[in-house]
């Protein structure tokens, strides 16, 4: 008996194996979850270094007034950020914000390349307009 053996041809499989893509996606997710808290937002200034103790956090968010090397101002209050301000715009903004939180400390974060006179002018305006006698100067620790 002679039987014909009929073989079926295999068709090509048109499915994509997504398991390796899922593995890559999970690795990328872990990398982003680890690096996201390390990314700091804000203006890049080179702070001068000094031996100083860090201040303790109070119940009020400090007003962090920054001066970039091009002598433009910015201000951070908690998570709110105000960028590229003139001195007059900065004083108007501080006046408005001090109505809501008059006891908030004011910290100056000046780039090391900013002329000393600009920092003194800012401190003088704060004293004249708002009676602020104590202003903190931010530095990098050594």
Short description:
This protein has 142 residues and is α/β, with parallel strands linked by helices. The chain has helices at 19-35, 87-100, 116-130; strands at residues 49-50, 63-67, 73-77, 80-85, 106-110, 136-137, 140-141. Helix content is 32%, strand content 19%.
Please state the second-level CATH architecture of the domain at 49-141: 2-Layer Sandwich
Low-confidence stretches: none
CATH uppermost class of the domain at 49-141: Alpha Beta
C-alpha termini separation: 96 Å
CATH topology of the domain at 49-141: Nucleotidyltransferase, domain 5
- Number of helical elements: 3
**Approximately how much helix is present in the residues?**
25-40%
Largest sheet: 5 strands, mixed
Strand content: 15-25%
Following the backbone from N to C, one meets helices and strands in this order, namely: HEEEEHEHEE
Q: What form results from the Cα inertia axes?
A: rod-shaped
Rg over CA atoms: 29 Å
Number of strands: 7
Secondary-structure-derived class: alpha/beta
Cross-sheet strand order for the largest sheet: 4-3-2-5-6
Average of the residue pLDDT scores = 82
Subunit structure: The Tol-Pal system is composed of five core proteins: the inner membrane proteins TolA, TolQ and TolR, the periplasmic protein TolB and the outer membrane protein Pal. They form a network linking the inner and outer membranes and the peptidoglycan layer.
Subcellular location: Cell inner membrane; Cell membrane
InterPro entries: ExbD (IPR003400), Tol-Pal_TolR (IPR014168)
GO molecular function: transmembrane transporter activity
């Amino acid at each position: 008996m002679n039987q014909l053996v009929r073989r079926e041809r295999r068709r090509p499989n048109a499915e994509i194996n997504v398991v390796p893509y899922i593995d890559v996606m999970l690795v990328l997710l872990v990398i982003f979850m680890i690096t996201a808290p390390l990314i700091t937002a804000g203006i890049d200034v080179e702070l001068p270094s000094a031996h100083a103790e860090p201040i303790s956090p109070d119940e009020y968010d400090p007003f962090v007034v920054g001066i970039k090397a091009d002598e433009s101002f910015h201000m951070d209050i908690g998570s709110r950020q105000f960028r590229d301000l003139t001195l007059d715009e900065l004083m108007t903004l501080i006046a408005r914000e001090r109505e809501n939180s008059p006891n908030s400390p004011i910290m100056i974060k000046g780039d090391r390349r900013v002329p000393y006179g600009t920092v003194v002018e800012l401190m003088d305006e704060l004293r004249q307009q708002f009676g602020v006698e104590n202003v903190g100067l931010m530095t990098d620790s050594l």
